[in-house]
Amino acid sequence: MTTSTEKPLTQNMRPDGSALDLRSYEQGGGYQAIRKVLSDGMEPKAVTDEVKDANLRGRGGAGFQTGLKWSFVPLGKDAPNPTYLVVNADEMEPGTFKDRLLLERNPHQLIEGVIVAGFAIEADIAFIFMRGEYTLAAERIERAIAEAYARHYLGKNILNSGYSLDLYLHLSGGRYICGDETGLLNALEGKRANPRSKPPFPPVVGLFGKPTVVNNVETLSCVPHIINNGAAWFRGLGRTKDAGTKLFGASGKVKRPGLWELPMGTTVREILEEHAGGMRDGLKFRGLLPGGASTDFIVEEHLDTPMDFTSLDKVGSRMGTGTMIVLDDKTCPVGMTWNLTHFFAQESCGFCTPCWSGLGWAERILKSMEDGRGQTGDLDKLASLAKMWNPGNTFCALAPGAAEPVQSALKYFRADFERHINEQRCPWS
Amino acid sequence: MATVYVDNKPYPMNPDQNLLHGCLSHGLKLPYFCWHPALGSVGACRQCAVKQFKDEHDAHGRIVMSCMTPATEGTRISIADPEAAAFRAGIIEGLMLNHPHDCPVCDEGGECHLQDMTVMTGHDYRRYEFDKRTFRNQNLGPLVNHEMNRCIQCYRCVRYYRDYAGGTDLNAFASRNQVFFGRSEDGVLENEFSGNLVEICPTGVFTDKTLKHHYARKWDQQFAPSVCVHCALGCNTDAGERYGTLRRIVNRYNHEVNGYFLCDRGRFGYEFVNSERRIREPLLKGQPISVPLAERHLRETIAKGHTIGIGSPRASLEANFALRTLVGPERFFSGMADDEARLVERILEILRHRPVRTPTLREIEESDAVLILGEDVTNVAPRIALALRQSVRQQPMEIAKKLKIPLWMEYGVRDAMQSAKGPLYIATPYATRLDEIATATFHAAPDDLARLGFAVAHALDPRAPSVENFPLAMDIAGALKAAKKPLVISGASCGSEALIQAAANVAMAARAAVSFTAPECNTVGAALMGGKPLSEAFRAIHDGKADTLIIVENDLYRRAPARDVDSFLHAAAHVIALDHLPTLTTGKAELVLPAATFAESTGTFVSSEGRAQRYFEVFVPENDVLASWRWLKADGWQNVDDVIAAIADTIPELAPIAKAAPAPSYRIHGAKIPRAPHRESGRTAVSANIDVSEPKPPEDVDSPLSYSMEGTPDQPPAALIPFFWKPSWNSIQATQMYQKEVGGPLLGGDAGVRIFEPAAVNGQFYFSAVPAAFQPRAGEWLLVPMYHIFGSDELSLSAPGIAELAPKPYVALNTADITEGTEIQVSCAGGAFRLPVRIRPDLPPGVAGLFAAVPPLAGVRLPAWGKIARQK
C-alpha cells in the first residue's frame, strides 16, 4: 500500500484563498505538461494512452475511464470537424463543492488540463460549462483564460506546435440536469437541457453533432500531473486499485466541514473522524451519503470502507463525487430524504415518466409524512416508486440517483419513517 | 427478417426497426405513447417496457424500452413478464396522477389512446391522494382546442409540430411535472398542419375545435371514406356525420398519398357542408319548388332549347360525365378558363407522352433533391410542403447511416444531422413559407423562372435548349444530378406554360420525377373528360348557336372577368345552375338545383398525381339535395357504377377508375361494410320520440357501405375503410392494425388507381420555346397571383374556422412609396378594383402580387399587366 502524502491538485493553492495567477502557477511547475506534449512532439494517441495507463477515472461521479472516453474520438484528417472538448463545471450535486475549489483557486491547472486533453482528442474548440452561481470562479477562470491567451497557451498554433485551441467560458442557466453530459450539450446548443438518447455517444456525435468529450473539472485537473509525473506515479497515489488523489469533502453537523485532497481509497472513517473531526459535541452519527445526494446512505458498519469506485459499490452505495453529507441523530432522516427528493423532483427535466411523475409523487408523500399526515402504505408506495427509478427504467441517471437516498433511507431508517406515520407528526420537530 | 422471440414464440421482424414496431406489426398488445411511426423513437414515456433476456437460459432478464431496442436476430423478450407488466402499470399510474379523469366531458373520450393504454395495462386503482397540478389553457385559434390539464408529457405534440412540421410557435416550457406544451402567449397556431395535433396527441389536450361546436362521440358518428376536396392532391379522409350534419374530418391513412397527416384546410374546411347558406331545395327564379317540378322544368327547358353544358374541375367525374352525356360531347365545356385549360392540357400531354413519372406524395417525401418552379406549395398544394420538410432530411440521413445510428432512433438521428438540409431549390415569384428550409431561392417573374428551368435542363443535358448565364442553374443541375431520387415540382399556379415546359425539360434531363400541382380537386379529371374551354362556350351563346346553359358546380365569376360573365349569362335565354352554395352564378340562374357535396354523394376525383379515387356518401341529406349526376342522369343509370361503366366505355383513358374502389355489389362474406362503428350507442333511441320501432336505415345503391352498425367485422379494402377501430385500439392509433407493417402499406394495398405512367419515348423530347427575359414596363405592373392556404380555396371559405383565418383580397407591392394598408386602385383587362396594399420586398421589380380569391376579383385572369394608382 502506498502511503503517499502528495497533493498534486491542491498543494500550490494559496492559503489566503486567492487564485494562483499564471506566474505562480508556472513557478509551481505549471504549463510544463503542455510543453511536454506540444513541444516534445507527443502523438495525441500517446497522450491518451498515458491517461488510460494512469487509470484516471471520471471525477464527476460516474467514474468512467477517461482515456477510454478520449479514445472513442475519431482522429486524423478524415475525422469530422470541429472536435469539441467541454469541461463540465456545472457542479450542482447537493453537498458537492470540490470543483468550485479547483476553479477558484487553481484555474490554470484546469486550463492546462484542457489543452492537454484537447490535444489528445484533436479538439479545435473547448468550452467550460460552468454553474451560473459560481461567479467568483467565473471571474477567475475568465482572467486565467485571458492570461493563457496572452502567453500563447491558447489560440492559434500554441507554442508554435501547430496545434490550435480556443477556449470559451459559458455560464449555465442553472439546472441540475446539465450535469448529465448530454443534457449539458443540449443546453450549450441553446436547446432544452433534456439528456440525449445514446447511442450515439458524445465522442462520436456530441456538441452540434460533432465529436465531443465532456470531462469533469477535477478529472482534467489531474491530467497535467499525469503527463508530468507519469502514469505509474499516478496509479501509485491511490491506496486501492483506483488511481490518483481525490478531493473528498464532508458537510453536515461535523466538527470541521471541508474539503481535503487525499489518496483514492482513504476510508470513510478517516475522512469523517480525522479530517472532518467527527460529529459535533452532543450529536451522534447516524449515516452519510458518501458522494453527494444521489448516493445511497451508508451507516456505522460501513465506515471502514475505502472511498473509491469499487469498494463503496460493494456495500450498496457509490463514491459519486466523493463529498459526503453526514446525518446526525438530531436531524430528521425523513425530513432529509424529503429535502433531497424535493431537489430531484424540482430538477427533473420532465422528459421521462418515472422521473417527472414519480419524483413529484414521492416528494408529496415524504412531505405529508413530515407534516404528520403520513399513511399506512406510504412506505410501500415509496418503495415501488424507487423501483421504478432503477437504472434502465428511466431515460438518464437523474432518477436512479434520486432513488438511492430514498431506498437506503427506507432500509436504514425505516423505524423513523414508521414513527412519523404512527405518531402523525415528525418526532424531531 | 429477423426472428424475435416474444414470450417464447418466434416472430419475424424487420431488423431495421425497433421491437415496439415489430410487436405492433404482429398485432401484439404493447402499450406506448411517445413513439409514432412517423416520428420515431425517443424513449420518453417508458410505457412500452418489456423484459429482455440474453438467451433462452436467462431467467432473470432486464427491463428495456421496446421502442429503443433494435429487433435484431435472436432477441428474446417478454411482454407478459410480471415485472415488466407491473412496470407498465406503474407508468400509467404515474401518467394518471395529474390527469383530470374528465373522460365524460372530454372530446377525446371513447377514442382516447390514454384510455386504451390504461385499460391495456390493467391500471385501475388510484393510489395518489394529493391535489393535481393545473394549467391555464390557451386560445390557439378557431381550429385546435387546448386543455393542458389532460397532458401526460409524452412530447409527441412538439416533436410533430416542431421537428416534423417545422412549426416554431408551439413549444415545451418549464420542467419536472409541470411541462407546459403551448405557445408563449395565446394566439392562432401558425403552422398550416396544426390540426394533426388532434390525432398526434394521445389524449384530449389538443382536440378538434370545429367538432366541439357540434360534438358527437366517435361511436355516435357514421363514417364514410372520403377524398379531400380542398386541393388537387387527393388526401384520403374519413368523414363523420350525426343527425344530418357533418361533424368532422379525420385522416384516412394512405401509404402512397397523405400517410398520417392532413393540412388544416383539408381537415377543417368541411364545415361548408353544414353552411346555413346551403342550397337545399330547387329554386325557380328564386322561389322554392318541388323536386318533380324542378325535374320537369329542367327536362323541358333542355328539350326546348339549344343547350350547352359547363362542367367543373371541382365536380366529380360522374357529375361532369352526366352533363357531357346530357348535352352531348360537342356541347360540353370543361368549365375551365382558356388559360387554365391550356396549362392543364400541357401538363396532361407531358404526363401522357413524355418519359417522366408523376410521384406519389410518399415519393415526394423520399426525394433527396428538389427543385420547385413557380409553386407556392404551402398555399397551393399544402400537403406537399409537409412532405418536402421530410425530403430535405433524406441526404443528411446519410450522416446517421454512416454512424450506424438506426434511423428510427429519432433524437440520435437529429443530434447527428443537426440543422443539415438536403438540396431544395425554390424559384417562385415571391418568398414562400418553405424558403426557410431552401438551399437557395430565386424570386422572379414567371418568364424568368421558366428561363431558370430551361437553363437547369441545359446544364444537365446539352441537347436541351440553352439559356445564357444562370450560375444558380449549375448548382441546381449538380444537386439534381447527384441525387438518387430527384424531383421537380411545378404547376399551373403562375399561369405560365413555359414554366411547365421548363419543368418537364428539367425532369427529363435529370431523370427526375415531376409533380405538377393543379388548381382544384378534380382539375385533372375534368381535363381528362375533354371539354372545350370557356371562351368557346361564350362564343356559342353570343353566336346564337346555343341559348340554354347548364352550369354544374361552377362559379363562372371565378373563371372570367365579371363583365364577360355578365354578358354571357345575360345572353343566354335560360340558365340552369347546380351547386352546393349560392354563388354569383347561381344568383343569375333561372333554375337552381341543390347539388350534393362530397359528403352527400359518391363519386370519383383524379388527383394531381393522376390517381383516381372514390369518395363515398357519408349521409343521406334530409332534403332535396341530390348528387349532380342524379339530377342530370341518362336513362338507365341506377347507381354510380352505371355512370362509371359508361365513362369507361366512352373514354378509354378513364377506364381504370372502375378499379379506384370496389363496386357497389362488393361484399365481405355476404355482408356490407358498416358506416357506424360497432359501438354505436342509443341507436334505437335516436328516433324514439317519433316511433319506438327503429326506422329502416337508408339504402345506399352506390356503395358496399351500409347505414348501420351491422355488417362485416372484417377489415375492408383500403378504399372502403370508414374508420380505424379495432378491439383495444379505439383511437386513430388503430391505423396500425390495418397495415401490413406499421407505417407501411395498408393490408390489401392502398386506395386509388394511377392513370399515368412514364411513356417510353425515343429521340428528341425537349421543349424548345424559351421565353424572353422579363422586361418590366414603365407605369405598369405584371400582376401575378398570390395564394393563401386559407382563402384561395372556394369551398373552405364557407367554413367559419377557415374564413376567420383567411386574409381579405389585397395587392402586394415591392415599393417604399406606399404604406401598408393604403387602399389603391388596381386596373387591368379584368376590371378596376380598390384594394389595400401589402408591402412585399421579396417581389421582383415590375411585378405585383394579387390575392384575388373572392369574385369578382377572382375572375381576373392572371398574370396580367395592370396599372396601379393612388386613391384620390
Per CATH, the superfamily of the largest domain in chain A is: NADH-ubiquinone oxidoreductase 51kDa subunit
Structural class of chain A: alpha/beta
Overall pLDDT confidence of chain A:
96
Order of strands, main sheet of chain B, comes to 14-13-24-23-22-15-16
Biggest β-sheet of chain A: count, sense, barrel? 4 strands, parallel
Determine the structural class of chain B based on helices, strands and strand pairing. Answer: alpha/beta
Largest interface, chains and sizes? A-B, 40 and 45 residues
User: Please, what is the average pLDDT of chain B?
Assistant: 96
Tertiary shape of chain A: globular
| Relative helix content of chain B | 25-40%
Which radius of gyration of chain B do the C-alpha atoms yield? 28 Å
CATH topology of the domain at 342-524 in chain B: Dimethylsulfoxide Reductase, domain 2
Quaternary organization: heterodimer
Sheet with the most strands: spatial strand order of chain A: 3-2-1-4
Gap between N and C termini of chain A, in Å? 47 Å
Identify the CATH homologous superfamily of the domain at 342-524 in chain B. Answer: Dimethylsulfoxide Reductase, domain 2
Level-2 CATH architecture of the largest domain in chain A: 3-Layer(aba) Sandwich
As for the CATH topology of the largest domain in chain A, it is Rossmann fold
What does this structure look like?
Chain A contains 17 helices and eight strands. Chain A has helices at about 20-25, 30-40, 45-55, 65-70, 100-105, 105-120, 135-150, 180-190, 215-230, 230-235, 270-275, 310-315, 335-345, 355-370, 380-390, 400-410, 415-425, and strands at about 85-90, 125-130, 165-170, 210-215, 245-250, 260-265, 285-290, 325-330. In chain A, the strands form two sheets. Chain A has a four-stranded parallel β-sheet with strand order 3-2-1-4, sandwiched between helices. A four-stranded mixed β-sheet of chain A has the order 6-5-8-7, with helices on one face. In chain A, helix 7 links the parallel strand 2 and strand 3 (about 165-170). In chain A, helix 3 packs across helix 6 (about 105-120). Chain A is globular and about 75 Å long. The N and C termini of chain A lie far apart (about 45 Å). The relative contact order of chain A is 0.12. Chain B has about 850 residues and is of the alpha/beta class. Among the domains of chain B are: about 1-95, Ubiquitin-like (UB roll), CATH 3.10.20; about 285-335 and about 530-650, Rossmann fold (3-Layer(aba) Sandwich); about 340-525, Dimethylsulfoxide Reductase, domain 2, CATH 3.40.228.10; about 780-870, Barwin-like endoglucanases, CATH 2.40.40. The model of chain B has no long low-confidence stretch (mean pLDDT about 95). At the A-B interface, helix 13, helix 14 and helix 15 of A face strand 4, helix 2 and helix 15 of B.
